[in-house]
Amino acid sequence: MNEPRRTPTRDGTHDQTHDQTHDQGNDQGVGKAHDHTPGAGGPAPAGSGRLWSSRRVPAGTAALLLLGGTGLLLYDIAAVRVHRPAMRWRRELARQLAERHLDDTVVLAGAGVAAALGLWLIVLAATPGLRGLLPMRRPRPEVRAALQRDAAALLLRDRAMDVSGVRAVRVRMRRRKADVRAVAHFRDPGEVRTDLNTSLGDAIRGLGLARPPALSVRVARPGRKG
């Protein structure tokens, strides 16, 4: 280990400027290392947005139907090209299309079914789905997470049952609203409602959701028997 260099002065003392400069450099290095600590002065976590469903069943069904219909039609066209008779279903379809008018019931029914299926596929492609998942905040851009509604409702129910005076609780969790219905037995309903608002508000903030739902609490007395 190298000894610190000291420069003698006229009065016999030693100059420790090098040591002080070295110590200041170490302090600055430590300060820079602390600046890179995750969560220290960094941006607030952003929301992850709605999660999109892959729609495997509708997409697979539509792809198989299109593949089967296209393959069958191409096979029939190729057979006709080699001077073989067309399939019976295509001859019958051509005859029906030639004889039936546009206002025929069968034509209108088929057009309605085709339009309904097309509209259904458009809705599936334009909507995210996965309504049972609540998006959570993203601490990092590459991280995406979601919480199931049933799990969030169960957690809120457990927190509500911990409040003194609560006899029964029913929680309905939605994307934008948490509807809580409680039954109080030996305490004033107004006091129970205040405690529930405080406890459940903290619980909702602790879930880490990107868009915390609004809290709606209703407290009632148990009904009289008989």
From TrEMBL:
Region (Disordered): 1-53
Stretches with biased composition (Basic and acidic residues): 1-25
Pfam families linked: DUF6286 (PF19803)
Keyword Protein biosynthesis part of the UniProt annotation: no
Transmembrane feature ranges: 57-78, 106-130
Entry annotated with the keyword tRNA processing: no
Keywords for this protein: Membrane, Transmembrane, Transmembrane helix
Record-annotated DUF6286 domain positions: 116-219
Domain of life (superkingdom): Bacteria
Protein name: DUF6286 domain-containing protein
The organism of origin for this protein: Streptomyces pluripotens
Source species taxonomy: Bacteria, Bacillati, Actinomycetota, Actinomycetes, Kitasatosporales
